[in-house]
Design brief:
The chain has 447 residues and is α/β, with parallel strands linked by helices. It has helices spanning 48-64, 88-99, 103-112, 116-125, 127-134, 140-152, 158-163, 186-191, 201-208, 232-240, 246-256, 279-288, 292-299, 331-365, 387-394, 404-420, 422-433, and strands spanning 38-44, 66-69, 72-75, 80-86, 168-175, 180-183, 218-221, 265-269, 306-313, 373-380, 440-441. It contains 17 helices and eleven strands. The strands form two sheets. Strands 1, 4, 5, 6, 7, 8, 9 and 10 form an eight-stranded mixed beta sheet that branches. Strands 3-2-11 form a three-stranded antiparallel beta sheet.
Length: 447
């Protein structure tokens, strides 16, 4: 009731100032490819702390998977070109993008094994915050942003993330008005006449994980303080998009930000609503840049030998007791079952789309003298062979608080499931074959 007294949500972004904003004149945000051999894309799904821990385990396994290249040892972690994330997975992606390998030193204590949910609930019960709730602009999301910024991301901005020169981090939310994915990148912020450099990473992660009702939408202002215009490649993509296609809808969504009167404020909620796996935004990124060949030139600067995607899918399929009774299920159980069914079907479609797209992109990139091989690797709880253990993982809660032993188990699952994936094995063997003098081993878990 108190949070409902806030009559206006706080604006999270600022307009472009006279100084040059980060990458202001660039159409793409990518960094050069790590080795030139592989175009490696990671996708981190939603699922609260469970998803964050699962993706963290995969990052550790990529760190521990080493191979020799041109006489020196490398890690698959060093080959990551981009990470696309939503909701819970965005905590891990953003922390890695902002702090690099520091994630392996303190991330478990800072976030994974920290009861963030209890802290936020205590904040709601704190009488000091009651008065802030009754004031203008402070709400549950603002309280979460304040906590994330102080305790997790330590005031980090996207300028700080860019300075790390690591993989491109694509944090995704959902634009509530048009139902499309909203990527936190310079292209979107240029259309909003907003300074991307100074935008807080905590605000982006809060938007990506802002579950409706539980959290208020994160609000951005669509400023009219500059001559906003779309990048040239968007205009070119519009010509190629088929009527009614998802690509045409995406371009129309970008165009909508140019309408400063009708869309003066942008309301962002959980990225899992529009893509709970984080793979659609990675797909759209390539498509809107004009296809794999053009995207590889813009993002990598060359044509790789391998194009690979690792999808870290923390989706669960918990047991539902409604089928053991003739009693009509309650409203909560019905809504949960309906939303889970819709989510699962959309996830299935997204996976099929990416599998076929990787094959198509590899054909587009290949020449008679240079064949490009695609690898689609999915890590999920359904891959667990033991049915009893699979049930245990499928019943891990979706929240921002898990017991320490559950966190350890989910991290270890990320290690083991990636290591045992046949497709992952094929990828690392292919990396080995690129140099006959290479040696490769998969790091064993140290837990």
């Amino acid at each position: 009731m108190l949070s409902g007294c806030a009559t206006q949500s706080p604006i999270q972004n600022v307009p472009i100032t006279e100084r040059t904003a980060l990458l202001e004149d660039a159409d793409v945000d990518g960094e050069p490819d790590r080795s030139g051999d592989v175009w490696l894309i990671l996708a981190f799904s939603g699922g609260g702390t469970r998803a964050a821990a699962f993706s963290y385990g995969v990052l550790e396994e990529l760190r521990d998977t080493r191979y020799a290249r041109h006489g020196s040892e490398r890690r698959l972690l060093d080959e990551i070109d981009s990470i696309s994330s939503v909701s819970g997975g965005s905590f891990t992606a953003a922390y890695y993008g902002l702090f690099g390998e520091r994630i392996f030193d303190d991330y478990e204590d800072v976030f994974l094994k920290n009861d963030v949910q209890k802290t936020l609930i205590y904040g709601l019960l704190n009488p000091i915050n009651w008065f802030r709730f009754m004031g203008q602009g402070f709400n549950r999301s603002e309280m979460a942003i304040d906590y994330y910024d102080r305790q997790i991301f330590r005031g980090g901005t996207f300028a700080d993330m860019a300075a790390k020169q690591g993989p491109e981090i694509q944090i995704n939310a959902t634009d509530l008005s048009i139902g499309q994915r909203f990527q936190f990148n310079q292209t979107r912020f240029k259309l909003l006449c907003s300074d991307f450099a100074e935008f807080k990473v905590a605000s982006a992660v809060a938007a990506s994980s802002a579950v409706p009702v539980a959290f208020a939408p994160i609000v951005l202002e669509n400023y009219d303080t500059c001559q906003a215009k779309e990048p040239a490649w968007v205009a070119q993509t519009r010509k190629q998009a088929q009527p009614g296609s998802s690509l045409e809808q995406l371009v129309r969504g970008l165009d909508s930000y140019l309408d400063k009167d009708q869309r003066h404020y942008i309301h962002l909620v959980d990225g899992g609503i529009s893509d709970n796996l984080g793979v659609r935004s990675a797909y759209e990124r390539v498509q809107i840049l004009g296809g794999a060949r053009q995207a590889s030139k813009l993002l990598l600067g060359h044509t790789p030998s391998i194009i690979a995607m690792i999808v870290v899918n923390a989706e669960t399929r918990p047991e539902r007791p409604m089928d053991s009774s003739s009693k009509a299920p309650g409203i909560s159980a019905v809504l949960s079952a309906v939303s889970h069914t819709q989510l699962q079907r959309y996830n299935t479609d997204s996976i099929a789309l990416m599998q076929s797209s990787l094959k198509q992109w590899s054909k587009e990139l290949s020449t008679p003298d240079h064949l490009v091989t695609p690898y689609f690797i999915q890590v999920d709880f359904e891959s667990i062979a033991d049915p009893e253990i699979r049930v245990l993982f499928n019943n891990v809660a979706t929240s921002l608080a898990l017991p320490a032993d559950e966190v350890d188990n989910v991290i270890e699952a990320g290690h083991r499931l990636l290591r045992k994936s046949p497709e992952f094995g094929d990828l690392v063997m292919h990396m080995r074959s690129l140099d006959k003098n290479d040696s490769i081993h998969t790091g064993e878990s140290r837990r």
